[in-house]
């Protein structure tokens, strides 16, 4: 009874006031979030990144129109690379798809997506998205990729990513011998090698001794490396040749296509896929620096990029900006970005799309600080009006709120400015309007090449081709045998739910 009628203490009153203020702020935030959801429901705008929940000064590389936020994609504005950060289930993949849709619909950029955890759903969605906006999309490993373009030195640099070479002590000495051995091997024949199998054949120790028998200098270099060490290099390339036979000089290269999806299943064969990822990144470097047309711009997406080696990707980022390239990364944690040095190199040079994650404090601090009035009071047994009021610096982005973000929520940190948005979902594709892409035929082809795959039955549909797709010339029919899939066919559950019926036309997927 006493607890009901007794006067409340000063501390209890302060606690109640603080809770009331917190409830008021939470209610206001819920209202703002519902406003953003309402703005997105008013009409689909594939150019928009999302709807604004709250924002101070407009971020430099973005533009506000009403309640929606747009990424500036002009040559001078879209030079800043991107990093999508968020834990599992926060909506990272949907944000990547939204960004891909923006670049596909609003620019003429070439678009490449590199995925260490490939799924049939994402693969076919990306291919369909590219086709929707007039880009034929090639997919690896479904179709052969040519990783052997370029001069002898550039191909040599790529091949050196296959064996793991040390940099200190005896390992460094062995690395130098291996570099020279691979150089001599790849040049021991007519022209440059066009497959990993051909590389392995040219690296055969006895073959090289015979090939360079009349070249004393080269012969001495070969004899400096022990036969067993040479055999280990050959074995490494033999392993890669068996598992990645679809990388050959007969396939397509970056400069041949407008869009491509690379599925590299890191979890299935991590050591070999790591090597191929390094090989692929080295090829991208050469493409940007030498083979890409100067007037073409390219954006490359790396989902869970740490699986490819953070430093390799960071080196690529620093190279491509001056060659008309943008790199957009995705990661679940800051720890996955690498050590402190790599984290600083990444975080200091990207636009950050910060989604829900457990410990966002370090990244949230990049949004800047703001002065907040902090009031403290002296407490004793009697009311005491004396206290201290002072301004303290607090993060503009509250880490606690980041950890509680709903699905699709994101804080954008761009050049020290912050915007809180609800990311718009990626476009829902109408496969009938895409016309020439033949998704169902691609799936049936995959089923035919995998006896354990479900039978996919084509259903009749009127299918009116998309105007842009219908205007494109049909791709020539294949005459070469179709390569076997490396990872099997998708299950029924993995098949895109919005990919039923296709019109007759050319197969742009494979």
Automatic annotation (TrEMBL):
What range(s) does the AAA+ ATPase domain occupy?
78-351
- Tell me the domain of life: Bacteria
- Species of the source: Herpetosiphon gulosus
Which ranges are annotated Low complexity under compositional bias?
467-486
Q: What is this protein called?
A: AAA+ ATPase domain-containing protein
Q: Where is this region: Disordered?
A: 467-510
InterPro entries per record: AAA+_ATPase, P-loop_NTPase, T4SS_component
């Amino acid at each position: 009874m006493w607890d009901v009628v007794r006067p409340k203490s000063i501390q209890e009153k302060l606690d109640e006031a603080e809770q009331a203020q917190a409830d008021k702020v939470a209610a206001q935030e819920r209202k703002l979030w519902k406003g953003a959801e309402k703005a997105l429901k008013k009409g689909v705008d594939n150019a928009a990144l999302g709807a604004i929940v709250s924002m101070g000064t407009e971020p430099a590389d973005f533009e506000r129109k009403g309640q929606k936020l747009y990424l500036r994609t002009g040559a001078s504005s879209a030079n800043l690379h991107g990093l999508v950060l968020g834990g599992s289930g926060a909506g990272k993949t949907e944000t990547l798809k939204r960004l891909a849709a923006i670049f596909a619909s609003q620019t003429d950029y070439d678009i490449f997506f590199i995925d260490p955890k490939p799924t049939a759903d994402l693969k076919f969605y990306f291919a369909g998205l590219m086709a929707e906006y007039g880009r034929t999309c090639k997919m690896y490993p479904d179709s052969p990729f040519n990783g052997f373009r370029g001069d002898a030195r550039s191909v040599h640099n790529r091949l050196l990513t296959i064996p793991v070479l040390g940099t200190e002590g005896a390992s460094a000495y062995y690395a130098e011998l291996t570099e020279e051995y691979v150089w001599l091997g790849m040049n021991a024949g007519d022209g440059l090698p066009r497959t990993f199998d051909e590389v392995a054949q040219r690296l055969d120790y006895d073959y090289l001794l015979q090939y360079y028998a009349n070249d004393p200098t080269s012969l001495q270099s070969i004899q400096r490396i022990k036969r067993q060490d040479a055999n280990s290099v050959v074995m490494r390339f033999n392993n890669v040749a068996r598992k990645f036979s679809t990388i050959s000089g007969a396939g397509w290269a970056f400069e041949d296509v407008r869009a491509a999806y690379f599925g590299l299943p890191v979890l299935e064969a991590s050591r070999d896929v790591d090597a191929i990822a390094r090989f692929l990144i080295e090829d991208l470097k050469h493409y940007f620096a030498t083979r890409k047309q100067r007037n073409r711009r390219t954006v490359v997406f790396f989902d869970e990029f740490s699986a490819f080696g953070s430093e390799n990707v960071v080196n690529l980022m620093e190279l491509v900006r001056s060659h008309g390239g943008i790199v957009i990364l995705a990661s679940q944690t800051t720890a996955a970005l690498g050590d402190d040095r790599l984290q600083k190199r990444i975080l200091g040079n990207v636009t950050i799309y910060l989604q829900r994650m457990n410990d966002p404090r370090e990244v949230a601090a990049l949004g800047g600080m703001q002065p907040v009035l902090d009031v403290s009071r002296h407490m004793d047994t009697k009311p005491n009006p004396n206290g201290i009021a002072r301004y303290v610096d607090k993060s503009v982005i509250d880490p606690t709120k980041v950890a509680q973000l709903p699905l699709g929520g994101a804080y954008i940190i761009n050049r020290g400015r912050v915007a809180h948005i609800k990311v718009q979902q990626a476009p829902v594709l109408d496969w009938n309007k895409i016309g020439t892409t033949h998704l169902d035929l691609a799936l049936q082809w995959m089923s035919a090449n995998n006896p354990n795959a479900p039978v996919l039955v084509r259903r009749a549909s009127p299918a009116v081709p998309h105007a842009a797709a219908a205007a494109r010339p049909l791709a020539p029919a294949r005459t070469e045998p179709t390569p076997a899939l490396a990872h099997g066919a998708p299950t029924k559950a993995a098949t895109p739910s919005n990919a039923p019926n296709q019109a007759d036309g050319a197969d742009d997927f494979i």
